[in-house]
Amino acid sequence: MVIESIGSVLKRKGHEICSVTPDATVHDAIALMAAKSVAAVLVISDGNLVGILSARDYGRKVILEGRSSRDVRVQEIMTTSLVTATPETTVLDAMALMTRHHFRHLPVLQEGKLDGVISMGDLVSEVISGQAFTIDQLKKYIST
Questions:
Q1: For the residues of 70-133, what is the DSSP string, one character each?
Q2: Packed helices 91-101 and 120-143: angle between N→C axes, nearest 10 degrees
Q3: Where are the domains of the chain?
Q4: Tens-place pLDDT, residues 11-45
Q5: pTM
Q6: Could you read off the pLDDT of 42-90 as tens digits, one per residue?
Q7: Which of 37, 78, 133, 144 has a CA-to-CA distance to 17 between 20 and 30 Å?
């Protein structure tokens, strides 16, 4: 099995980034997540990545505390201690990083600039696809 980089995954999946500003309401961020069918949005200020807001953040920091998503700003609950990767990071290294830090979305920076975001689901799909290819190749080899 060829070990893919997350850069090659981004090429296939696309570089689309769902983002909000720090002063957006959490309600607006959650509405964007619902519209795009994603579980996290990146928080961008003046062109720079400053945080990430996930459905988990929303559940823990808004719903469980009885707050209103229309009254809370993204900057109040976003995660700011970000772990990032580069396009050269391997799929397996990215999975290990996400597992170790207990998050499901990994911003990808190329030369300090935001290049995309990879989810754990993207990585799992990549691994499964790679294994299916390997199995197919082994079946062909055995049957010849």
A1: TT-BHHHH-B-S---B-TTSBHHHHHHHHHHHT-SEEEEEETTEEEEEEEHHHHHHHHHHHHHH
A2: 140
A3: 6-143
A4: 988 888 999 999 999 999 999 999 999 999 999 99
A5: 0.84
A6: 999 999 999 999 999 999 999 999 999 999 999 999 999 999 999 999 9
A7: 133
- The residue type at 62: V
- Residues 96-113 have pLDDT tens digits of 999 999 999 999 999 989
CATH architecture of the region 6-143: Roll (3.10)
Length of the chain: 144
- What does the alpha-carbon distance between residue 61 and residue 80 come to, in Å, rounded to a whole number? 14
Between helix 6-13 and helix 91-101 the angle, nearest 10°, is 100
Instruction: Look at residue 59 in the predicted model and tell me its pLDDT.
Output: 95
Q: How many CA within 13 A on the CB side of residue 74?
A: 26
In this structure, are strands 19-20 and 105-110 parallel, antiparallel, or unpaired? unpaired
What number of H helices and E strands is found in the chain?
A: 6, 5
